[in-house]
Amino acid sequence: MSSRPPRRPPSRPPSRPKNVVPAEAVANRVAVSTATGLALLLGLPKFVLPVTSAILLLIGLITGGIVGMVLLLAVAGVLGWLLVAFWPVTPPRGRMIRAIVVLGIAVVGVLKAV
């Protein structure tokens, strides 16, 4: 019986995140300048933002006129802010879909006021 020491896997250097977006990019500036708001949102339970957005969206769609427009534009504004802040880490297909949703909500909001 031979006593061999246990075989250890080869060690790898720790992985480092890749800096794929230049520091002066618009998305980085938005994320940095609104970091306190993002931190506040991340501190809330995960269901708060989607449920609040859905409620405001439904109320905005049901009510008409200026109130509906304001609610829909508020939802579009928050979603647009999140889209821009997380632009570097969002896959290209996701960017396109999210941008279309934000623009669609904004257009419907403006049309509600007319």
Write a compact overview of the structure shown.
The protein has 114 residues and is an all-alpha fold. Helix content is 66%, strand content 0%. The longest helix is centred in the last third of the chain and has 22 residues, at 92-113.
Task: Write up this protein.
The chain is an all-alpha fold and 114 residues long. Helices cover 66% and strands 0% of the residues. The radius of gyration is 22 Å and the shape is elongated. The protein starts with 25 loop residues before the first helix and ends with a helix.
What's the Cα radius of gyration? 22 Å
Query: Whole-number average pLDDT?
Result: 82
* SS strand fraction: under 5%
Shape: elongated
Structural class based on helices, strands and sheet pairing: mainly alpha
Helix content class? 55-70%
The tally of helices reads 5
